[in-house]
Write the structure tokens for this entry.
Amino acid sequence: MVLFSIMLLRQLYHFPAFNFGWVSFFRWSLVTILFGLFLFAYIKRAPAKELATKWNDVLLPFFCAALPFAIISGPEIIVGFQEHLPQKVFDAIAMTFPLLGKKVNHWGLLLMAFGEVITVIGMTSLKSSFSIATEARTLVTRGLYRYIRHPLYCGEILSVIGFALYFPCIWTIANALLFSILQLLRARNEENMLKRNFPYYEEYQKKTGFVTPKISIFFSA
């Protein structure tokens, strides 16, 4: 709750977050709403049927939650610690920062916005069942969850890939790939816990896609 309160206040302080016209304002609005939903979800959370106890139920989700901030703010943080790092170490890290192309790709901003829309819509369905750590609270099958079992992870992966497209360098691309893989592992861990607590979860799995909708859904009666 403290973390999401700080992030929400930070969003409000940095209005608008980026100076790139309506797309920037739209993204700032989405991210601000998202942090508000996260905070509200923690205030009104439903009781857990099973709490996170294993390291991969706690450390992996929190690492995944922190990685996007490292992707965006990592270079700035590392530059701030330049005087405390050996020059060879700093030079090796700094090689990952420069753009691989001549300029940023603004299409990446649109993909980021699209991913953030999916995440916000997913949160409006998840509500009090939300948790960063892998925990079983209630099984949500409404909204986007009718088609995708992990719409939040889908949206977050698209957003991070969008940032890597917007600012394509070794740092963003490598970390976006790492984030995507870890999010999929996180989703698998979550599904194992949900199976233990909700006997009908396997039937729900058959009807829905993992992080993308099943094509058959669009052709069913």
Helices lie at 2-13, 21-43, 55-80, 87-94, 107-126, 151-166, 170-197, 201-207.
